[in-house]
Amino acid sequence: IEELRRDLRLMKLRRQVTPHFLFNSLSVAVSLVITSPKEAVAFLRRIAEMYRYLLNYGDEYAVPIEKELVMMRQYFDLMSTRHVDCLELHVSRAVRQLRGYPLPPLSLQGLVENAIRHNAHTPEKKLKINLLTDGDWLIVSNNRLPLLSDGGSTRMGLTYMDETMLLLFNRNIQVESDDRHFTVRLPLVPPGEAALTHSLRP
Q1: How far apart are CA 173 and CA 126, in angstroms?
Q2: Does pTM top 0.85 for this prediction?
Q3: What's the pLDDT tens digit per position in 94-150?
């Protein structure tokens, strides 16, 4: 019964975050159709590439970190075409070499999306997103450039990551925030502690 409850909770979390990602991406595409049709076409093609990731891994409980990094990079490149010369992404060599550590699908993309949505960014004051590791944690941090008017955050992405990590691995994420930086630490669970082939498919 407890395992069934866990599975149902995971399904609910996933069904919240996947449409959220698609809705936000398509909302940007709609605005581009009006202002820059050619750019909108390129944008939609990249969304299609990322949607292929969702088809392949969207039903999985967890996927290897190296695949999440590829998805995150695709999303960042997509946003960089929308916010030219306003965004920087730095992924440490140690992070690029990580293999097999399980993460919830769309977790890293969600952190990049949140950073872009809730911070101002201009060519003069760029939003800088950094990924590094101390061996036990994957650390995702960005400088804070508060918007003059921000509708606030539902914290859906953070809730999704925290509850999913807790349900799967009995580990919580850590969130730190001050006037200069916003940082999320994701526990690096040793490969083998999660069944990456276990999915939400019936």
Answers
A1: 26
A2: no
A3: 999 999 999 988 889 889 988 998 898 999 999 999 999 999 999 999 999 888 665
Q: What is the number of residues in the chain?
A: 202
Report the alpha-carbon distance of residue 22 to residue 65 in Å, rounded.
Answer: 21
Radius of gyration of the chain (CA): 17
Dig out the tokens for 179 from the structure: 């006037």
Burial of 187 (0-12, 13-18, 19+ CB in 10 A): middle
Whole-angstrom Cα distance, residue 75 to residue 105?
A: 13
94-129 b/e with 16+ CB inside 10 Å = b? ebeebeebbbbbbbbbbbbbbbbebbebeeeeebbb
